[in-house]
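In the design runs reported in the main text, the only information available to the sequence generator was the tokenized backbone. The following block is the verbatim input for one such run; it is reproduced so that readers can re-run the procedure and compare outputs position by position.
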């Protein structure tokens, strides 16, 4: 066995010992966004929309901003507020046309026409 091969075998152990294997669910918590997801999954759309809005106020350019807008619109749909949902989908399409969330938004806009 050469030195290179034996060194590679230690990489998983090194990651584990440095904490890569010790993540908790708290390390994946995104504050208001995570709370919104939980409410959305339970069908509590009013509470979900409020939390998505909170996330956007706190992180207007955050990594999850477009996703928050998309699910906020879906929450409004769930509450029967199609006009409000439509406004948000249109904003996503206008502001981030290259993202997959714009594609999803276009699909929702088409569905709302029927």
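Verbatim output:
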């Amino acid at each position: 066995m050469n030195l290179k091969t034996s060194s590679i075998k230690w990489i998983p152990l090194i990651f584990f010992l440095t904490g890569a294997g010790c993540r908790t669910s708290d390390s994946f918590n995104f504050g208001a966004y995570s709370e919104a997801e939980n409410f959305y999954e339970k069908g509590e759309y009013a509470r979900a929309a409020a939390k998505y809005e909170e996330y956007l106020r706190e992180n207007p350019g955050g990594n999850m901003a477009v996703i928050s807008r998309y699910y906020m619109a879906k929450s409004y749909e769930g509450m029967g507020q199609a006009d409000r949902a439509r406004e948000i989908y249109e904003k996503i399409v206008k502001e981030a046309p290259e993202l997959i969330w714009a594609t999803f938004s276009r699909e929702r806009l088409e569905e709302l026409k029927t």
